[in-house]
Specification:
It is a single chain. Strand 1, helix 3 (78-89) and strand 2 form a beta-alpha-beta unit. The protein has 482 residues and is of the alpha/beta class. The protein is 57% helix and 8% strand. The strands form two sheets. A seven-stranded mixed beta sheet has the order 3-2-1-4-7-6-8, sandwiched between helices. Strands 5-9 form a two-stranded antiparallel sheet. The protein has 18 helices and nine strands.
């Protein structure tokens, strides 16, 4: 059975605009209502947070923390993983801990032998495993690591292979656990080498923690975000471990823990830095994964949560979602019908609604980012503009991921390359095609004003993606230099 995906749906909507604009008008209206719903959700989440970080519950003195740090790595450059392990070996005032490196599905010994040898040199704390035929991507590897965890470990720490932890990371994690009775804590993601011109992209990525994570923590509803996560081991086991059937195993686990009554907290301290995606392809693939995986997680429901908690959980899970795809298809299809003389009077309202919807997608995505970025210390005008350019460049993969999730589809997990040699110089075919469609719309006689605005907005992501790609190229150069 052939299933409709987001790209096929786009062409179906364009075609229907020529023969049945009433059906497309209904689809466009639903998409516009969906986008309005996302805006209202964001406003309600902002209005129902306490504005103060949660302090956790009084500790019940379960004994000192003992950590098992899990690093799942697949086809990563050996020097990258080496830096991560060396940073862990230099932890100061840390409690007892072990490090499990689960190197999986990597055929080239040059990528994993040096890591294995380093673990041997670093001593008994560092345990290396090389496994082939591991199913379930990162989640599958983490489940293997969980099964091999020291029985004495009280907490599992998840660290991405490219993240260099600060020397005091584990000590701070132990301190935070000791002062509260939370079952998991989450630290923010941050990136190294983020001086100009990459700072704007870094701030775009940090926006989730600046807004959604802080708001969710103020409401006691924080989820997990995949790295620099500290989870009570018995809670992780009771919840069933990691789900290898989702693209966002971190958020999905956070929701399961919440639904079972476990408590979590956001600790707004930078304790490690990783590497940003190195090109537009990696950035877009990551954003698609976040949008699609989180929307599918949200579709599982929120039973067991209070209304306030469910509101903030849903706000986190839809942080990257938008309904721009059916709105763009309705606008392009309506413009095509109008230019060909088909259904002229019938398609004008559809074009107007589509244009308004696209404008709403832009405003709801960029205005909060502008406000949060402008408040950041040291954020100048070029930095703010770079952050906004990156956000606009990523609206299309977010839209594709949102619709695929709603259609019940899930593409395979794609690793985000962290080796500059794998970086692409192009931006893919979607954004140039959107730009062409947007420019052609501007040439259609009699197009409503909102349609003209929508056409201009459709053309905008492509040139902005080129500027973002150039900044990522400079970022790659800075990594090579360091």
């Amino acid at each position: 059975m052939v299933r409709l995906d987001s790209r096929a749906l786009f062409f179906v909507i364009v075609t229907l605009s020529l023969v049945s604009p009433a059906v497309v008008f209904l689809l466009v209206g639903l998409a516009l209502c969906g986008q309005i719903g996302l805006v209202l959700l964001s406003v309600l989440a902002s209005a129902t947070t306490s504005g103060q970080p949660s302090d956790g519950r009084p500790s019940h003195a379960r004994g000192p923390a003992r950590f098992s740090v899990h690093i799942a790595t697949y086809c990563e450059p050996a020097p990258l993983v080496t830096r991560t392990l060396l940073a862990l070996s230099e932890q100061t005032d840390a409690p007892e801990f072990e490090v499990i490196v689960l190197h999986n599905n990597t055929a080239d010994p040059a990528q994993w032998r040096p890591v294995q040898e380093l673990c041997q040199r670093l001593g008994r704390r560092f345990r290396f495993f090389h496994e082939d035929n591991v199913a379930g991507a990162k989640a599958g590897a983490l489940n293997i690591a969980l099964a091999r965890t020291d029985p004495e470990a009280t907490h599992v720490v998840v660290l991405d292979a490219d993240y260099e932890a600060s020397p005091g990371f584990l000590a701070l994690a132990a301190e935070e656990i000791a002062r509260s009775d939370d079952d998991f804590i989450q630290f923010p993601q941050a990136y190294r080498n983020t001086a100009e011109p990459a700072r704007g992209i870094s701030l775009e990525l940090a926006d989730y923690f600046l807004r959604h994570a802080r708001q969710a923590d103020g409401a006691g509803a924080m989820l997990l975000t995949g790295t620099l996560s500290v989870i009570r081991r018995d809670a992780l086991v009771e919840a069933g471990g990691w789900n290898d059937k989702t693209l966002t195993e971190d958020a999905e686990l956070g929701l399961r823990l919440r639904r079972r009554g476990y408590r979590g907290r956001f600790v707004d301290r930078v304790v490690g830095r990783g590497i940003m995606p190195l090109d537009m392809s990696g950035l877009a693939s990551q954003r698609y994964r976040w949008a699609s995986g989180n929307v599918r997680t949200a579709m599982k429901g929120f039973s067991g949560l209070s209304l306030r908690s469910a509101l903030h959980v849903l706000s986190q899970l839809t942080a990257w979602a938008n309904f721009g795809l059916p709105l763009s298809a309705g606008l392009i299809g309506g413009g095509l019908a109008l230019s060909l003389g088909f259904q002229g009077d019938s398609v004008r309202p559809m074009i107007s609604f589509s244009g308004v919807g696209i404008l709403l997608v832009y405003l709801s995505s960029t205005l909060p980012l502008f406000v949060s970025t402008a408040r950041r210390e040291g954020a100048n005008r070029p930095t703010i503009l770079a952050a906004l350019a990156a956000r606009v460049s990523l609206l299309a993969p977010s839209a594709l991921g949102t619709i695929d999730a709603l259609l019940g589809l899930q593409r395979g997990f794609r690793r985000t390359p962290k080796d500059g040699c794998e970086a692409s110089k192009g931006v893919g075919a979607v954004l140039p095609a959107m730009a062409v469609g947007g420019v052609l719309l501007l040439l259609v006689p009699g197009l409503p004003i909102s349609g003209l605005v929508g056409g201009a907005l459709l053309a905008l992501p492509y040139p902005l993606s080129l500027s973002t790609q150039a900044r990522l190229a400079a970022y790659r150069a800075s990594l090579r230099a360091s």
